[in-house]
Amino acid sequence: MSTSTWKTEILNRLIERDNLSKSSAGIYKSFDSLNAKIVRLREEIDRLHQDNTKLELSNALGERDILKQELESKNLQIEAYKAKNNSQLSEIRTYEKNLALLTEGYKTLQNRLKRLQEETKVKNQNIEIVNDDLLSLQIENNLLNVKVAKLTAENNELVERWMAKVSEDAQVLNDANEVLELSRKSMSPSEG
């Protein structure tokens, strides 16, 4: 049941109760009027008793019986209105209890939503911190990769230079060995 539906229902019930009360006011006025008529008729009956007129007395009693029946009918209507009014009041109390429960549930859900929003805010802050750390580590990794590449290039250059130097030294040694070998060969035939 939506909020506007039950609110509308309660307002309609209250308006209906007020209308019943207004219509009951007419009944109460009619009751007072009938009561006043009964009092007048009783006075007239007393007067008729004094006048000893049986016909007028009979008419007055007949009218009194009619008024009594009308009064009983109005009393039954009043009782029916009271019963309906009590039923509507009971329904209103039920609606008020339901409204209180719904309001309490709404407050609970609001508190839960607020708590979840706060948790989400903290999680988002933590994610931002992790993202910042990750970005920092990526930058550091990139710098280290550049440094490693530079050092690798330097190492390769040093290895190449060393290899060239070793090759050059080996060539000098080979040349020296050749010269030494030639000099040995040249010394050896004269000995032989």
From TrEMBL:
Protein name (record):
Autophagy-related protein 16 domain-containing protein
- Does the keyword field hold Coiled coil? yes
Secretion signal: which residues?
Answer: none
Family from the record: Belongs to the ATG16 family.
Keyword Coiled coil included in the entry's annotation:
yes
Q: Which InterPro entries match?
A: Autophagy-rel_prot_16_dom
Positions the record marks as coiled coil are: 31-161
Autophagy-related protein domain ranges (all copies): 53-174
From which domain of life does this come? Answer: Eukaryota
One Pfam family of this protein, by short name? ATG16
> Mind listing the UniProt keywords for this protein, alphabetically?
Coiled coil
